[in-house]
Specification:
alpha/beta; GMP Synthetase, Chain A, domain 3; Rossmann fold; 5 domains
């Protein structure tokens, strides 16, 4: 990419923003958050530096980034994106920051005393002091950490979503390898990539890992957006008569990542626009990546031409992680947090939470927080009590075996009586095995109890059926998606 010098435009935009804040009597707010310096630029992107990751994140959270980009658009006359990096901070600068923080602290205490009849309590002062000190420490550590970082962060991608933080197992190895291959050769092969998987299995993580990898190694214009936000932007472009701007934004992308395309159902106008965008990018050998929570065949309200485009390249599945992978995920998360837990606690969580990775990590976070906040050690008994709701949610006591049998039977066009019966024809055996497998997954029934519900079969027959489905999932990646679809239908039937 060619280098462009946008420094003059930046300084003019910065001056105008300052003037607007000053006119609105928000000078202190500007001084606090707009410690921003021009670093470099390429066509369409200005890289700006800030003193800490905290400031960078606050610029995004407080919508200051939008203010900056809108002002740059006014000055430059064309859309321009911003990229924020953390600049190294000298020791003297840190000392000055701490001194300034202390002064801010004293000012806040003085103001509090002026506005309250009762003097500030020692506890309040100590609490505020501790917050300031913690912030100063974090500030120093952040800059220490970021001094070695040379690659800029993408403005919309989550920097935590990288390949090295994605735990692989039999459930996702194929998808992971495909994503890595694409990041090395975007637009060359496996285009588009469609990632299928239920909620919380890592679709977004893997998609954004592709974007982060390409951005750090090759650069270019990489756009990540959810299908919902894509739809909202399209509607807004119609309302504001700015369709050309919308089209130029997406059709000039080097990599387009769209999350949750199932949201596009029944949105005919958005589907038409996405089809045109797809054709433009695909024809230019630009990489396209999509995610969906169900097979394309279940997207009944999606146009045939768009469905065919989504499935034109490579489709990969993210299935439920097995027990060993769940243990590895927990161990990886603990390592990232610099925390430790006894092996038996990790195994307990992995055994009882099999729904998705998101729930798995949520349980781990709860246990770690419990230890930190109470100062107690985690035991089998305390974790069982702490996570009892999460553990129970994986086993739904309200769903009957009959409901499972009827939903599975209906899906395969047979009678639910056949599932309970003695017939062993091929068209009945598979649905029966699936029903047993699902029943074991989502109910509290033992294998002996399940055998009784399935025509008086013994527990070894049930175990054999469950094992058959487990083995089949390993060789047929679409089977797990079919199972997840059946589970959703069972839940809907129950309601």
């Amino acid at each position: 990419m060619s280098t462009f010098d946008y420094s003059d435009f930046w300084h003019e935009a910065y001056r105008l923003i300052h003037d607007e804040f000053a006119a609105a009597q928000k000078e202190q707010e500007f001084l606090m958050w707009f410690n921003i310096e021009y670093d470099s630029s390429v066509q369409g992107i200005i890289t700006l530096s800030v003193p800490s990751a905290f400031i960078r994140d606050q610029l995004q959270k407080r919508n200051y980034v939008s203010i900056i980009e809108n002002k740059l658009f006014e000055v430059l006359g064309q859309p321009i994106k911003t990229n924020f990096i953390v600049r190294p901070v000298k020791r003297q600068q840190v000392q000055n920051f701490i001194q300034d923080s202390s002064q801010i602290q004293n000012n806040h205490i003085d103001i509090y005393n002026q506005n309250h009849q009762n003097p500030t309590s020692t506890q309040q002062i100590n609490s505020f002091t501790q917050n300031i000190n913690n912030f100063s420490t974090d500030f120093q550590q952040e800059n220490k950490d970021y001094q070695s970082v040379s690659k800029p962060k993408h403005p919309t991608l989550n920097e935590k979503y990288t390949f090295n933080k994605f735990v692989t197992g039999e459930n996702n190895a194929f998808a992971y390898n495909a994503a890595c291959s694409i990041s090395n050769n975007p637009g060359k092969a496996y285009n588009p990539l469609l990632i299928l998987g239920n909620v919380g299995l890592g679709k977004t993580h893997l998609m954004q890992a592709i974007g982060n990898s390409i951005y750090s190694s090759k650069g270019g214009k990489i756009i990540y957006i959810t299908a919902e936000n894509f739809t909202n932007e399209f509607i807004e472009s119609i309302n504001t008569k700015s369709q050309s701007k919308f089209k130029n934004k997406y059709r000039s992308a080097d990599v387009l990542l769209i999350d949750d395309i199932h949201f596009l159902q029944n949105k005919e106008g958005t589907q038409d626009e996405l089809f045109s965008t797809y054709e433009a990018l695909y024809g230019a050998n630009k990489q396209l990546v999509f995610t969906c929570d169900r097979p394309l065949s279940e997207l009944k309200n999606l146009t045939d031409r768009l469905r065919s485009r989504f499935g034109r390249g490579l489709t990969v599945d993210l299935n439920l992680p097995d027990y060993e992978t769940r243990c590895a995920i927990l161990a990886k998360k603990l390592q990232e947090q610099e925390q430790t837990l006894p092996k038996e606690i990790i195994e307990l969580i992995a055994k009882n939470v099999a729904s998705n990775v998101r729930d798995l990590e949520a349980c781990l976070t709860k246990v770690v927080a419990y230890i930190e906040l109470t100062g107690r050690k985690a035991t089998i008994e305390s974790v069982h009590h702490l996570l009892r709701d999460s553990f129970n949610s994986s086993k739904n006591e309200n769903i009957s075996i009959e409901t499972i049998q009827k939903v599975v039977a209906d899906a395969y066009g047979i009678s639910w009586i056949d599932i309970k019966g003695k017939k062993r024809t091929k068209n009945i055996v598979l649905p029966r095995q699936l029903a047993m497998y699902i029943a074991k997954e989502i109910t509290e029934y033992s294998t002996t109890e399940l055998g009784a519900e399935f025509g008086g079969r013994d527990h070894t027959t049930v175990i054999h059926s469950i094992d058959k489905i487990k083995d089949a999932i390993k060789t047929d990646s679409s089977l797990d998606l079919r199972i997840q679809s059946l589970k959703r239908k069972i839940e809907e039937y129950q309601k």
